[in-house]
Amino acid sequence: MNASAPQPLVFHANRPGQDVAARLAKVVSGAVMADAASCARYATDASIYQVQPLAILVPASDDDVRAATEVCTALGVPIIARGAGSSQCGQTVGAGLVIDHSKHLNRVVAFDASAQTVTVEPGIVLDELNGWLRKHGLWFPVDVSTSAQATLGGMAGNNSCGSRSLYYGNMVHNVAALDVRLADGTEARFGPERDMNDAPPRVRELVAALRSIGEREHDEIARVVPRVMRRVGGYNADVFNPQSERPYTADGSVNLAHLLVGSEGTLAWTRTLTLSLAPLPRHRALGVVNFGSLHAAMAATSELVALGPSAVELVDRTMIDLARSNPSFRPVIERALVGEPDAILLVEFTGDDAPATLRRLDDLEDVLANHGLERHLVKVPLAAEQKSLWDVRKAGLNIMMSLRGDGKPVSFIEDCAVPLAHLAEYVDRLTEIFRRHGTRGTWYAHASVGTLHVRPILDMRRDGAQKMRAIAEEASAIVREYKGAYSGEHGDGLVRSEWVAWQFGPRLTRAFEAIKDLFDPAGVMNPGKIVRPSRMDDASLFRFPPAHRTLALDTGLDWTAWDVQNDPRTGALSPPGSGGDPAHGFAKAVEMCNNNGHCRKFDAGTMCPSYRVTRDEIHLTRGRANTLRHALSGALGPSVASTAVRDALDLCVGCKGCRRECPTGVDMARMKIEFQHQWQREHGVPLRDRLLAYLPRWASLAARVAPLLNLRNRSPALAALMERPTGIAAARSLPQWRRDPFARQSAATDANADVVLLVDTFTRYFEPENADSALQVLRAAGFSVAIAAPMAADASRPLCCGRTFLAHGLVDEARREAKRMIDALVPHVRRGAAIVGLEPSCLLTLRDEFLVLGLGDAARELAGRAMLIEEFLVREHADGRLTLALDALPERRALVHGHCHQKAFDVAGHVVTALRWIPGLDVEMVESGCCGMAGAFGYGVDHYDVSMRMAELSLLPAVRNAPADTLIVADGTSCRHQIADGTRNDRRRDAVHAIRVLARALPAAARDGATTTVAHSR
Ligand SMILES: Cc1cc2nc3c(=O)[nH]c(=O)nc-3n(C[C@H](O)[C@H](O)[C@H](O)COP(=O)(O)OP(=O)(O)OC[C@H]3O[C@@H](n4cnc5c(N)ncnc54)[C@H](O)[C@@H]3O)c2cc1C
Ligand code: SF4
Ligand code: SF4
User: 600 CB less than 6 Å from ligand 1?
Assistant: First the structure.
């Protein structure tokens, strides 16, 4: 639901797509792209395939799509419709014009509360739609795992299915009508057949021809279409003779929209969708049944389904272990376990009456008691706990994909659907097939409908293609024996279209071809999918074909942890550096992005702030990883240090949101450092970057002329004059230099202090009172404190974490600073002192980048003891070593904004915990992403606008809405600056570091400090 104006036209006509792009540029107002890097970003989806498109259109309106359809049909250029591009089968890749409907075509068009229907444009995301519907007590219940990314257009394209399909059905059961455009430009509403008499003549003829195919194939449909609900392969020709376990329509009538659902953009472009809605479930109860073996879980499924649950979902042993190894999932999964199960089933009941719904868990218990399993049930009655468990289940695939090395879990037989009676045997037989082929699979998902996800680990660069074919052939034979469906959820695309003929036989395959030709005689709509397909193992279509090569690279950071191979049978990794990556692991780290699109998020979490503002693929973590991957393969030129990569990384603010939230651990902030390093090496360091990077070195000098430097903030004319030479936006205020920087280094040495306080450059020169407050609080809590200081032989300047150097790619300088820090602090670490800091981005550098600067075990030792101050206080408190007497403050409320790096390291919550020690203070964390300032990012004239838009996403509105007597708390220097800058035109709000709030709450006597000492090492 993006209301922003269409983007200006972007046009780089330097590829074979130039004819299309040139023609399009004249007739559309959306963005048209045909440069190699843009095409690279749209060449993949969440499948193993990759095909470079000719051009990309991000239409500003449906008129753009109309115009583009005309151009493509005239030129015979394929049209590939695309939403979030989260398809797993290669549906959205192809050598044509990719039309990305997700940025602008995402509005709610009509809503009828009494009929419980909504009409939407194809680009609206499921979670956004359901957020919009919530106030009406309704939802669209096809709850796919990718609900935060999947667009309704893409969901209809794939006939998507949610975890609760047992209860609500698939897309086909929930779409009431589709307004579409055919390749020849004809526009029509496809809905109930009886309502289509007024359709344009072309459509009436089409419908008549479809009906005659339906009648002709009536018996064949009954003979070959599997009678399972989860069958999404081929076209839904069975609308004329329904075979789905769940009826397509309540009265058995024909709805022609259902024939288009699941057609993967091969028949028509969906302009709008009219969807049937369901009342929001009022109550849910969840039971987790623990089984000693996967076989036992599968054998029990049909009996559990007979109880009428809304979902029965499987999580197997491997997935349980993987979830346990993830810090955010561990506590959740462990609460659901009884002993060490080999598999668990999540059994959910839905109802309008709370006690009655809860009692369904007793029914479940009774059934389990018949098998002596009643003690193996964990009841989860609370909604919040249920959600956490569902989040673990939904993250299943992504958790699995985090395996390092070239062997990856590959999607090709991962959603076969078999009748429940055969489920246990199916699992056993397929497991045996995997074993024979030297691999294994992890099993999870929709047990209730016989659709189990499983991906064997294959190496597509080596023998993966051969094994894929062999396994697919053996698996398909079992599916046929059980009268199941080979394609039960994710669609056909490039990986399964070949199997349409296998599933439906030659006669229905010809009928499908006839249907395709009736809709799209010129064959321009997403050709090669569903009918007339390529082979699934055509290596020329692979993202990583055997011929895949990577440029050799001398990296600045240590990436060897990614330069590994895995054993497909056990998942065990070879030693770091043994993976054979000519880029020493950097390429393999980049390749961890499997394009699942999880970074396309707009609400929860931090990732990815730049995309949230622009909604452009280039500004998505995925877009950046794809650009880098292509650059590393040499596809964007002879060097990785290309302008294409620089442009893609330009708006990456280094927030590390991806480090924590990307399920496969793509750490773009670190990758940007590496890229900047490569860039600076090749192109030199511009003066502006040099100035910012070396700030810690010239800061002491600046402090001496503070009044002069601070003049700039008081004179708009001076700020404007300086904008060009410095690149700093005139609209920005700059941090105020202090004439009285923190300067306690001259005090005595204390080699025995409990805590060594790291006073970073920003605290030292801009807000020294933060360090004073830290000293007061630590001492009041009974700790002896020393200030971190360099080795005596190297004392010409204070210690520095090197962050400003890292931010500008000056890795060698950063390493020098890190080495000084390690030399100075490790002796204190070894004697058991805690190293405590105030500025999240500085302190957490010790725990993050220091570990990849090649500084060995000493860096790891330091990282193990480096903590943010609230983290330290909370830990000491939890261990019973801290008592802090605090008084109430005049303010009763505090609003906390967590710095992105605090969130990335999961330590933002400690700020809230510590502030809650203040009597009567109501502390709330703002649901905010990045503040947009991100170090020096937001000061740049070229970034100012984006920076402010990031802040306006949630942080600034929350701050403005806070009552005047609310304390605004932010530990990041740049976050505080952004808050002040962003509110200065109305009611200016100044944020403070949490330690200042704690210090203010100290009783007056406790605030009078003892002397500070200096932590010298000799
Ligand atoms: C981690 C992960 C988990 C997943 N979990 C599920 C799950 O639980 N259930 C499930 O069903 N799927 C799942 N999927 C697959 C995928 O997310 C869904 O199929 C999703 O609905 C696709 O939406 P999309 O917007 O990404 O569509 P895209 O991938 O962009 O497109 C899907 C298809 O629709 C066509 N299309 C798109 N827009 C139009 C249009 N306007 N007109 C005509 N055709 C159009 C495309 O050409 C393509 O063939 C999962 C994928 C991943 C990576
Ligand atoms: S960057 Fe991470 S979250 Fe984004 S698509 Fe790639 S793997 Fe998924
Ligand atoms: S570091 Fe932040 S801005 Fe950069 S890609 Fe990751 S989430 Fe996006």
Answer: no
